[in-house]
Amino acid sequence: MELLTYKSYPKPIRLVITNIWIREIMFRLTVINVADLLKELKKVEGREVEAAKEEKSNFWYLAIKTCPVTWLHKVNSIEAYFPNTKSILEHPFWHFIFTLRRRHLRSKPAHFYNHYCGPAIQHSTLLTLIDRYINRSIRSKFSEAELEHIHSLDGLSAFLSMHYINMYEKRPTNDCLKNLFEAFLKTFSVRYRSQFVWVIFNFLRAHIKEYGSPPLPQFISEIDSEEELLHILNKINKHVEKANSANLTLRQQLLFLAKDETAITSI
User: Fold this and answer.
1) Would you call 172 helix, strand, or coil by DSSP?
2) CA torsion angle for 203, 160, 141, 29 (degrees, to 10)?
3) What count of Cα atoms within 13 Å lies in the side-chain half-sphere of residue 205?
4) Integer Cα distance of 199 and 11 in angstroms
5) Ranges of each domain in the chain
6) Is residue 162 a contact partner of residue 130, using CB atoms and an 8 Å limit?
7) Which of 10, 33, 48, 64 has its CA 20 to 30 A from that of 58?
8) pTM of the model as a whole
9) What is the mean pLDDT of each run of 10 residues along the chain (267 residues)?
């Protein structure tokens, strides 16, 4: 039996995770609503019949709003067409913010990272990438694949790991936190346009505060309502639209934001 960790979460948490799973599929198909998702899934060669069944049963509408996915065969079917989406359901990021507590921290940061993130992420490569990203200001030196990796659940988990490693080794971690939340805002404004973003954002902030971290960046600590967070994400989207008159895919929008040093400071 698979997805044991995912299935162990309470339904409200599984609904949040399912929503992000669907948003990743939307991101790859460059659509932002379920109606367009259904249209695009019908065009995927080999999924025509399955897509018709999903439309008739309202599978995607229900999954994104009220009924977290439970059928392993459905997840595996989607995985065959959209590789590495299944891993979202049991991603270490959810373990970090929903279940990991202070008492679980290992004495050595490498052990901590390997235990919680190693199975899902090539930790040495990704941590090196995150370290480069934090300590270099010129984003154009990164490949598009690297920038896309950073602005994903993998990247956010690596930022968190780097933050805890810095704390353990008594190194400054303010820049890491700043980059973590900037990456979060960029990622969730384009890649994961989730209706549950406020829930995820609050869990992330609370998780970091629990570990006696330095004060959060001011622009993050001052966000005190769902409306304000959504307003900020909307302004980030407007920033992309204003800077680019041509129609961009969602991936191109994400890469534009990833390279833009002013996307967050200008909002």
Assistant:
1) coil
2) -40
3) 20
4) 14
5) 4-88, 91-259
6) yes
7) 10
8) 0.90
9) 86 96 97 96 92 95 95 93 93 82 49 48 68 74 90 90 81 90 96 96 88 83 94 92 79 92 76
